[in-house]
Design a protein that fits this description.
CATH class of the largest domain: Alpha Beta
Largest sheet: 8 strands, mixed
CATH topology of the largest domain: Rossmann fold
Oligomer: single chain
Radius of gyration: 23 Å
Structural class: alpha/beta
Distance between the termini: 61 Å
Strand order of the largest sheet: 3-2-1-4-5-6-7-8
Number of helices: 15
CATH architecture of the largest domain: 3-Layer(aba) Sandwich
Order of helices and strands: HEHEHHEEHEHEEHEHHHHHEHEHEHEE
CATH superfamily of the largest domain: NAD(P)-binding Rossmann-like Domain
Number of domains: 2
Length: 435
């Protein structure tokens, strides 16, 4: 049987693993399979990325070049040639699923990637989608494209959905130690999916269908988005009342049951949490449902960058300066501390609003030396060195991302005005504005 033969290859690690999409999800997964003895082929439409990987260079800050070089030495190769998919026994898709300008799901990367792979599908292959998406995507978009190749899903080719779970910059977890949810289109597909991931991941969590697995990923991130929306709204209320919300959260977190600490910030960032709720709200409308709770948290979180800018303008006004013409330095433009990941970073929106209101904007981020090329945002800027002279040259600094590499004592001593969105500066100080 095709199923048994494929499971045998996966368990003996003689299968060839294809990773499609070599970014923040695909590269760590590639390294894990390479480390445990599989031949791995990486496929990506970006030829410059594949060339760099083949030369042993990492494009992700927290993954050292040595890890890539080691994988290449073990046989890893990256290519932009989708026909190489025919050599793979497993194809794991790790491609972006952003929103379009109307805040609706854009699954064109998934659809186009599947269409590019389809001509090279064959017997005894498993296709796994890891990209976050709405429930039904695997059945509605992948299944017909696979079956159009005269293949029978569940008999001679296998289709699974297993949502990615990555937390860049978190030293407590790695690909191997994060439990993996897997759903198959059929029971045979699930068996193959488990065999694929059980070799590389310490704990695999099987679920009854691809839809359940897709919904699981959305629930995980909507849970975070809603709770962050709640604490961001609480921050605004607390600020009006003259209360430090960070002190409140710290105190509440001492309760050993029934409370999970979420901290406010300048908005939501990363590829998942700002985006995933809208995948579900969009799909729910197909069923005549309106997810008001989720949409409300989205509104709150989307409004935070403008709230930060308003607080900055108010603070400058109190110092006799208009925002228009003032020099403002944004500290940290990655979406979270200690990483170089810029996806959906609220810092970028803060910079854009400041610029649109006439401020002269600069940034300092030890993890992002040059503002990267982005589809929807453009700044021709390099990171400013965080020195006494730099801080003194700006009218205000906005602490947007609390990297550990920042010298906070220097910032407090030398900055003229600090807009703190992360609760770093807890002691009362006339130059610190909580935002």
């Amino acid at each position: 049987m095709s199923k048994d033969a494929l499971i045998g290859k996966l368990r003996t690690r003689s299968a060839v693993i294809g990773i499609v999409g070599l970014g923040y999800v695909g590269v760590p997964l590639m390294l894990r399979y390479s480390d445990i003895g599989y031949k791995v082929i990486g496929i990506d439409i970006d030829e410059s990325k594949t060339k760099e990987l083949n030369s042993g260079k990492s494009q992700i800050e927290h993954i050292p070049h040595e890890r890539i070089k080691d994988a290449v030495a073990k046989g890893f190769e990256a290519t932009a040639d989708f026909s190489m998919a025919a050599q793979c026994d497993a194809l794991i898709m790790c491609v972006p699923t952003p929103l379009n300008k109307y805040r609706e799901p854009d699954i064109s990367f998934v659809v186009n990637t599947m269409s590019s792979l389809a001509p090279y599908l064959r017997d005894e292959q498993v296709v796994s989608l890891e990209s976050t998406t709405y429930p039904g995507t695997t059945e509605e978009e992948l299944l017909p494209r696979v079956e159009a190749q005269n293949l029978s899903v569940g008999k001679n080719v296998f289709l699974v959905y297993s949502p990615e779970r990555e937390d860049p910059g978190n030293p407590n977890f790695e690909t191997r130690t994060i439990p993996k949810v897997v759903g198959g289109h059929t029971s045979a597909c699930l068996e193959v999916g488990q065999a694929l991931y059980e070799q590389a991941i310490d704990k695999v969590v099987p679920v009854s269908s691809t839809k359940v697995a897709e919904m699981t990923k959305l629930l995980e991130n909507i849970h975070r988005a809603v709770n962050i929306g709640l604490v961001n709204e609480m921050k605004i209320v607390a600020d009006r009342m003259g209360i430090d919300i960070f002190e409140v959260v710290d105190a509440a977190a001492t309760k050993p049951f029934g409370f999970t600490a979420y901290y406010p910030g300048p908005g939501l960032g990363g590829h998942c949490i700002p985006i995933d709720p809208f995948y579900l709200t969009w799909k729910a409308r197909e069923f005549g449902l309106h997810t008001r709770f989720i949409e409300l948290s989205g509104e709150v979180n989307q409004g935070m960058p403008r709230y930060v800018v308003d607080k900055t303008a108010d603070a400058l006004n109190k110092h006799g300066k208009p925002l228009n013409g003032s020099k403002v330095l944004v500290l940290g433009i990655a979406y979270k501390k200690n990483v170089d990941d810029m996806r959906e970073s609220p810092s970028v929106e803060i910079m854009e609003i400041l610029r649109d209101k006439g401020a002269l904007v600069g940034y300092s981020d030890p993890h992002v030396p040059k503002f990267p090329t982005m589809r929807a945002h453009k700044f021709d800027l390099n990171s400013q060195p965080l020195t006494a002279a730099t801080l003194d040259s700006y009218d205000a600094v906005v602490l947007a991302t609390n990297h550990d590499k920042f010298d906070y004592k220097l910032i407090l001593d030398k900055a003229k005005l600090i807009v703190d969105t992360r609760g770093i500066f807890r002691e009362p100080n006339d130059k610190v504005i909580k935002a």
